[in-house]
Amino acid sequence: MPSPTNDGQTPLSPEELADLIPSLASKEELNEWERDNILSGRSWALRDRTSARDMVSDAYVRKLHRKMFDQTWKWAGKYRATEKNLGVPFEEIHERLAALLGDVRFWLEHKTYSIDEIALRLHYRLVVIHPFPNGNGRHARLLADIFVMKHGLPRFSWGARDLVRLGEARARCLEALHAADRGELLVLLEFGRS
Description:
This protein has 194 residues and is an all-alpha fold. The chain is built from eight helices and no strands.
């Protein structure tokens, strides 16, 4: 099966591809399988009683990824050990993630930003770090959704469309992330609630 390489998707190494759990014949079958696995992970996250503050931890970040992809990839919930077309060097993942989670706890404690803005800053920086071999965008979006929901707010709409497949919604999402790269977080805030 070919590695994901569409715009904004992370290519997988042959070793990472070899860790696919089900026997699938096409990218479409993989997308469907992952979608079902992610829905299972989302159900777990909605039932989970971890507090909003306690979910801002390395253990929770990895556990959520594992729950989202545990029926798909053997490396689910494990940080990548290879370089990718985006993300920080893999040796920096732990340090960068610890800094991000510390920042989020600080922002919460000092009410530096609104809950929406904290969630989207968490989402954005997690995507920039790109800690896992794949599934980073979907993981970061679900983490942001669960974060705001645990604060009593509705989940983000993310353009109310499928962001996995190429199309207008995915292009808008990538544009919002590129705007955040330039320091224009308002575009990502607007997209998250569009």
